[in-house]
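ok here's Pyridine nucleotide-disulfide oxidoreductase:
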Amino acid sequence: MTQHIVIIGAGFAGLMAALSAARLRDEKGVSPKDLKITVVAPEPALVVRPRLYERNPASMVARLDELFAATDIDFHAGHVDTIDSENGTIGIGGSEGQVSSLRYDRLVVATGSHGFQPPIPGLSDFGHNVTDFEGAVALDRHLHALAERPSSVARNTVVVGGGGFTGIEVATEMPQRLREILGQDTPIRVIMVERGPVIAPDMGNEPRPYIEARLRELDVQTVLGSGIVRLDGSGVTLENGEQIETETVVWSAGMRASPLTAQLPAERDNLGRILVAPDLRVPGSPRIFATGDTAKAATDNDGNFSLMSCQHARRLGAFAGHNAAADLLGEPTLAYDQPSYVVCLDLGADDAIFTRGWSPRTVEITGAEAKKVKMDINAVWIYPPAAEREAAFRNAFEARTVDF
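and the structure:
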């Protein structure tokens, strides 16, 4: 009887899970007819979400059709609405309202995360984001439409809500991006609003001075210790009562795991991620693995846990897919680990900062050299491998075994 691995999601974790499961199947000489691997997602495409803060976000999509065909991975178009962990099935809604189901022997939940929007008045009506494809494309259209409006303080001002990694990359990209649209002589204002006492709160004391200096160089203003409490058509109001005239607000503060995780009888953290076993199995559901942004997994023995990032999602996915296949093929599963953690933060057209370690973070490269690394990461490393069987399987193996 054919056994079936179903992977929900075609993002970084889902893609690596599928390729890793297919690699182990191939290594053990098992026919795709005997062990079927199916990816379920709206489209056979990877949204390169780490690049959505850049110009032309509509181009940040990589098709997966040929890669799946080259590696004998099936694809089922649709959106998973239900997981029946007791009976081993998932319910899938199609684009035209039709409903279907798939049986699984092992399930990998790789449905990712979405941007978190707190109940701030006006945020859903007037705020933009770069945390999902549709939001980033809508922001890009909005920015280009500004050129059709009369010049004003509000038109020429962008407010970025949140001073974390995404907020910094949005803010440092925005001056040049706006001038390309509105004209090089336009008096641009970019203001980053962070409720906490410092920008880049997770970066630590060593990297922060360099980031702050770069913000000053780009004339990106920062407002600290006062968050956004209201948006309307004329601008934003802060907790301290200050009002900023703007027609563009980009919200970048916070992520939450896919709500599909709530259907599994497992403990979750405050971000909605499932607290998984070392081999990424969902406790209490032995046929289900959670990975990527849906999983909170220990990365080492020092108390560090995976983060909602492409860096962790790729490796988590590679372990989850390998383990799902291993479990069906009678092979031992592997405990996920990811001892190295690096951050390469984009700081505009010609600058970046590369750090290593959890806490404290050590700065290894800055400036043009770090920017080259960032460009390699964004444009090469995180993209799917070539649609060639051996290259794809090698990429999946390296995602699980090669550390930074």
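+1. The chain has two domains: 3-114+255-340+389-401, 117-251.
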